[in-house]
Design a protein that fits this description.
It holds the Pfam family BolA. It comes from Oleiagrimonas soli. This is Acid stress-induced BolA-like protein IbaG/YrbA. The structure is a single chain. This protein is an alpha+beta fold. The protein is 34% helix and 22% strand. Helix 1 crosses helix 2 (43-54).
């Protein structure tokens, strides 16, 4: 598994999501995900939404995934680039 594949899975699985995924060893990854669907949800629920886009790959091809999740408004407030860029 590679960061580009994970990015595509997340962005295709969450309508309107923008993801920035990093990871050099092929099994441990970090992702920043911005998605309007996160509004009103606690971090655990947001993470579950992202994990759902990855399905059985979690715990298999993807050993670990560290997540930071924001709504577009939260990302803008933090002045985040990358995943928050349009």
């Amino acid at each position: 598994m590679d960061p580009a594949s994970i990015k595509n899975l997340i962005e295709n699985g969450l309508d309107g999501a923008r993801a920035d995924v990093r990871g050099d060893d092929g099994v441990h990854f970090e992702a920043e995900v911005v998605c309007a669907a996160f509004a009103g949800k606690l971090p655990l629920a947001r993470h579950r939404m992202v994990y759902a886009t990855l399905g059985e790959r979690m715990g298999g091809e993807i050993h670990a995934l560290s997540l930071k999740t924001w709504t577009p408004e939260e990302a803008q407030t933090r002045g985040l680039g990358g995943a928050g860029d349009s």
